[in-house]
Amino acid sequence: MIRKPIPPIFGDVGFGTYEEVNIGKPGADFGWPFYEGGLDANGNTVSLKQPQYAVLDAAQDFYNSGTPVTAPAYTYKHFGSNSITMGDFYTGNTFPSIYQGALFVGDFSQGTIDALRFNSQGKVVSIKRFASQADTPNLGVSVQITTGQDGNLYYANFTAGEIDRFRPV
């Protein structure tokens, strides 16, 4: 089977309020540091002006340039010192089919791991909490999530200093 190339997908640790997942496409400009991801009043993913930078001449020049800013594919509000952790697209067969092809992302500070599913246009169509410190007390702080050659999901547990494996229940 020939698969279409997947554009680069990367996490962006938010500056003031939001963490982001961005899809790199030719010509994409995410507006950093003058913008960060956010949500509008209807819950749609948008790019928001950074209030801390908006007063700078360079920011005003950028805003007035008419440069289109690419909104993130996914964003969530953070608190404190959050940090998004990017993982793999799951291609194994250990977990239920709802996780097949999902992108796994974690949050260093919240102690959570979510599975994001995208449609063919690169829009997030579902978000499922896969693990959290509340239901997986030994989850620790994940700093890498990857699919092993055996089809299992592994993560680097920063606090325990070890590589751990998720096991289906």
**Could you describe the largest sheet, including whether it forms a barrel?**
4 strands, antiparallel
Low-confidence stretches: none
**Widest beta sheet: strand line-up:** 6-7-8-9
Helix content: under 10%
H and E string: EEEEHHEEEEEEEE
Distance between the ends: 32 Å
Structural class computed from helices and strand pairing: mainly beta
Backbone shape: globular
User: What is the count of helical runs?
Assistant: 2
Mean pLDDT: 86
Strand content: 35-45%
Instruction: From the alpha carbons, calculate the radius of gyration and give it in angstroms.
Output: 17 Å
Strand tally: 12
What does this structure look like?
This protein is mainly beta and 169 residues long. 8% of the residues lie in helices and 39% in strands. The chain is built from two helices and twelve strands, in the order E-E-E-E-H-H-E-E-E-E-E-E-E-E. The strands form four sheets. The protein has a four-stranded antiparallel sheet, with no helix packed on it. Strand 8 and strand 9 (124-132) form a beta hairpin. The model has no long low-confidence stretch (mean pLDDT 86).
Summarize the structure.
Helices cover 8% and strands 39% of the residues.
Task: Compile the SSE list and pairings.
Layout lengths: L8 E4 L5 E6 L11 E5 L5 E5 L1 H4 L2 H9 L8 E4 L6 E6 L13 E5 L4 E7 L5 E9 L9 E6 L5 E5 L4 E4 L4
Antiparallel strand pairs: 1-2, 2-5, 3-4, 6-7, 7-8, 8-9, 10-11, 11-12
